[in-house]
Amino acid sequence: MTAWLRHHRRAFAAALGKLSAQKSAALLNSLVIGIALALPAGGYALLSDLRALVGGPSAGAPLEPSLTVFLRTEAKRPDIDALAQRLKSDARVRDLSQSGAIVVGRIAACDR
């Protein structure tokens, strides 16, 4: 056990010696490792803040997938109701609301 500790102490001292010899490289390496470790935590915090900002699910709840359907302003009410009924009959659609899943507004027509 003492040989193992002595070997690790020597390896640690050698690593510190190499780091002190090349300070700028060691600093940049430490910076890159720190950024790589901080990105997932920062992304999680950003998503949590955005979710709270838009009034989404309560903290700790997973993000719910959602879909917004934009219709042309010329869409007739029977067509809108038919689309809503078709979406309601789809097993993958759990919740449907006029202001959530179907948005009828003044949006520039997209001709494809």
Structural description of this entry:
The chain has three helices and two strands. The chain has 112 residues and is mostly helical. The chain has two domains: 2-53, no CATH class; 69-104. Helix 3 links the parallel strand 1 and strand 2 (102-104). Mean pLDDT is 77; it is low at 100-112.
Q: Could you tell me the number of beta strands?
A: 2
Question: What would you call the structural class?
Answer: mainly alpha
Order of helices and strands: HHEHE
Low-confidence stretches: 100-112
The tally of domains stands at 2
Radius of gyration: 28 Å
How far apart the termini lie comes to 73 Å
Helix count, per DSSP? 3
pLDDT average, as an integer? 77
Strand order of the largest sheet: 1-2
Helix percent reads 55-70%
Task: Report the principal-axis shape.
Answer: rod-shaped
Report on the biggest sheet: 2 strands, parallel
Approximately what portion of the residues adopt beta-strand conformation?
Answer: 5-15%
